[in-house]
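Would you be willing to look carefully at the protein I have copied below?

:::
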Amino acid sequence: MSASSASNINSSIFILTGFPGLEQYYPWFSVPFSSIYAVVFLGKCLVLHVVHTEPSLHEPMFYFLAMLALTDLFMGLSTVYTVLGTMWGLSQEIGLDACISQTYFVHGLSFMESGVLLAMAFDRFIAICNPLRYTSILTNSRIIYFMMTILTRSSLSILPVIIRLKSFPYCRPHILSHSFCLHQDLLRLACSDIRFNSFYALALVICTLLLDAVLILISYVFILHTVLAIASRKERLKALETCVSHLCAVLVFYIPIIGLTMVHRFGKHLSPLVHVLMGNIYILFPPMMNPIIYSVKTQQIRSRMKKWFSLKM
């Protein structure tokens, strides 16, 4: 749909963008996208099932892993209907209310995943740097407190900018940059004073994503300092192996976010395909990779899955 026709549609309707100029290939694109979502949903459900049914996994580390899986699962559920709807040619239109709701969940779940990764870094920090007090520090009540704090922070901190999106007039062509809705994408179309949203969103990113990343980095500095003080090389490797899965999850989460942010901030001259590709990597790559990472790198989950599949076969 052209910009001129999009600007004449009802003001509450927005047009989602798949891959501009490649619309004839959408039926082919729908196959890998559907497969990725299937991997996301099946992988998350499998991880949750294993953590729930295996008594040996009822530990703080795996409680946080279950919360990470739930976060990724809801991220997939919040975008699947627009992404696959666009790829399958069902609909490229989305109402303002639905778009704002999707924006809330996409950004809120990103903040939640960042908080969970920070909690998992704290778990590794205590397990390696203060192992004798691990069970006394990470009690069930304290874990529940951490989880509720993460949930509250991610769900409430973003509300001020989300609520304001409803009141903005959108007089520019209602063509979004992705097959899902983002806060910065809606701001680009608004014809109003968006300074509060811009500054608040920047402060929120600094106080959540950036702060979480810095704290994760600091925790690993202490972890590395402790590990290097271990005399046995075998014990050093064993301690570091418990952190590999978490480090991979951190990289898988933060690299797409940094890439998408850079593209939105400094890549206005780039092809729209680059924006679309980075957006899809941002919402699909972490949820797809996390269950693979933890299934391959975590011995308890790997052995439980092997046992489970052997029984099924």
Notes: The chain is about 75% helix and 0% strand.
